[in-house]
Q: What sequence folds into this?
C-alpha cells in the first residue's frame, strides 16, 4: 500500500501530524479543545465535512456545532451560487470578534469557494485573521496545516489542483448512522457554461470499485439502511479506468452486498444516462426507483448554449425509456430560469417539457452568473424582474402537477 504524500492511502506523514497535534492541544487549549465545522452547499460538501470532522476528532478535538465555543473553526464552502458565497463572507466576518476573545483560536476556510484564486486573494487582503485557506484536493492535509499554524507558521494558502489519485482511508466521523453518503467519484469533465464545478473540483476521478464496495460494507455493518452514492456526475463513474466497471455495473455490485439497505444516488447527467443504467435500476431490488435527471432547459437552443450535450427530444426520449422500463420510476429534476439569451419562447418550451414529463418535484433556480464561467460573459438582456415572473409561472405549473398527483 502506498504511503506517499500524494499516494492513494491517507499518508503516514498526516498521521504523524495528528499525533503531534494531540500531544500539543492540551498545552494550548486545556483538556477539552473543541472544533466546529460549518458546511455550505451540496451533499458532496457534507460528505467532505465528515472527513474534516474525522481528522479533527483524531487530532483530539471534540466536535461542536456552536461556533462561539470552538477553538478551531473551519468553513467548508460552496461556489455554485452567489448567495452561498455571500453567506460565507458574512460568517467569516464574525470570526474577527471571536479572535479578540480567544487569541489562540484558529480559523480556516476550504472547499469550492476557497479554491478560486480571486477568493483566496480577497481573504488574504481583507480577512487577515483567517489562518488557513485550502482547496478541494487538499483536504487530507488538514492535520499538517493545523500543526504548522499551532507551531507558529505564517498564514497558509494551498490551492493546488493537480488531479492526482484520490486519497483513501481519510478518518471519517459520520453525522448519522442509519443514512450515509458514499462518494464514488470527484470532479467533472462536462464544462456546462454556467457551472464553476470543473474549475474548482478538477477533472473526473473515479474511486476504485473495491474501495467503494469496502466502504459500503463498512457502512452496512455499522447499521446504515440508506446509502447515497455521490458524484458531480455519477453516470460518468469509471470512464477511462482500467477496471472496466461503469456506474451500472457498480450499482449491481453494491446491490449484491448482503444486508437490508436501500441505494440512492445523485447527480445524473442525461448525456450519460444509458439504457444499461436504466436496466440496472429496474433489476436491482435495493436501488431506489427514483432518478434525479436535471434537464435545466426545455429549449434545444438554450441547451446548446449551456453546453449540455443533448437536446430537448433526446431528453424526452430518455424519459420515455425510463418510464417504459421502470413504470414506477419517480423523476425529479433541476431547472434554470433566465439563462443568458433565453427568451420567453424558450421558457415556454421549458414549461411544455414539464407538462409532458410531470416530475415529482423540481429544484428551480433563477440564473445567477458565476465569475470565471463562459455564461457570465454572455449578453443577458432580460431583467431580473422579468425572470422572476417566469419563475413564478413555473412554480405555479409545478404546484398544479404535484396537486394532481396527490389527487387535490
A:
Amino acid at each position: 500500500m502506498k504511503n506517499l504524500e500524494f499516494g492513494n492511502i491517507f499518508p503516514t506523514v498526516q498521521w504523524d501530524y495528528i499525533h503531534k497535534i494531540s500531544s500539543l492541544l492540551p498545552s494550548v487549549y486545556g483538556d477539552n479543545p473543541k472544533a466546529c465545522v460549518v458546511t455550505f452547499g451540496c451533499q458532496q460538501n457534507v460528505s467532505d465535512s465528515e472527513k474534516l470532522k474525522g481528522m479533527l476528532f483524531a487530532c483530539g478535538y471534540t466536535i461542536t456545532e456552536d461556533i462561539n465555543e470552538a477553538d478551531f473553526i473551519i468553513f467548508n464552502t460552496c461556489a455554485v451560487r452567489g448567495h452561498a458565497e455571500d453567506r460565507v463572507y458574512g460568517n467569516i466576518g464574525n470570526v474577527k470578534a471571536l479572535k479578540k476573545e480567544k487569541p489562540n483560536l484558529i480559523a480556516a476556510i476550504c472547499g469550492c469557494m476557497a479554491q478560486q484564486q480571486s477568493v483566496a486573494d480577497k481573504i488574504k487582503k481583507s480577512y487577515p485573521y483567517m489562518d488557513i485557506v485550502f482547496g478541494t484536493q487538499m483536504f487530507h492535509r488538514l492535520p499538517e496545516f493545523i500543526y504548522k499554524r499551532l507551531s507558529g507558521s505564517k498564514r497558509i494558502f494551498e490551492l493546488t489542483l493537480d488531479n492526482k489519485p484520490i486519497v483513501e482511508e481519510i478518518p471519517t466521523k459520520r453525522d448519522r448512522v442509519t443514512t450515509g453518503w458514499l462518494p464514488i467519484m470527484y470532479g467533472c469533465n462536462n464544462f456546462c457554461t454556467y457551472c464553476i464545478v470543473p474549475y474548482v473540483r478538477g477533472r473526473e476521478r473515479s474511486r476504485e470499485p473495491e474501495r467503494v464496495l469496502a466502504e459500503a460494507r463498512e457502512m452496512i455493518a455499522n447499521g446504515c439502511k440508506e446509502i447515497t452514492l455521490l458524484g458531480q456526475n455519477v453516470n460518468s463513474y469509471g470512464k477511462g479506468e482500467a477496471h472496466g466497471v461503469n456506474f451500472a455495473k457498480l450499482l449491481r455490485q453494491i446491490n449484491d452486498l448482503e444486508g437490508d439497505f436501500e441505494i440512492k444516488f445523485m447527480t445524473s447527467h442525461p448525456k450519460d444516462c444509458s439504457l444499461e443504467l436504466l436496466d440496472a435500476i429496474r433489476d436491482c431490488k435495493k436501488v431506489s426507483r427514483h432518478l434525479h435527471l436535471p434537464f435545466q432547459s426545455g429549449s434545444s437552443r438554450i441547451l446548446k448554449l449551456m453546453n449540455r450535450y443533448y437536446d430537448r427530444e433526446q431528453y424526452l426520449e430518455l424519459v420515455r425509456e425510463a418510464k417504459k422500463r421502470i413504470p414506477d420510476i419517480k423523476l425529479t429534476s433541476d431547472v434554470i430560469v433566465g439563462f443568458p439569451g433565453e427568451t420567453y419562447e424558450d421558457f415556454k418550451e421549458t414549461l411544455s417539457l414539464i407538462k409532458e414529463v410531470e416530475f415529482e418535484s423540481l429544484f428551480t433556480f433563477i440564473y445567477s452568473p458565476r465569475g470565471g464561467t463562459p455564461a457570465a460573459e454572455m449578453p443577458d438582456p432580460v431583467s431580473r424582474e422579468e425572470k422572476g415572473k417566469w419563475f413564478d409561472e413555473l412554480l405555479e405549473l409545478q404546484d398544479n402537477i404535484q396537486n394532481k398527483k396527490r389527487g387535490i
Summary: Confidence is low (pLDDT under 50) at residues 1-7. The first helix runs from residue 12 to 29. The two ends are 59 Å apart (CA to CA). The domain at 289-408 is CATH 3.30.750.200 (Transcription Regulator spoIIAA).
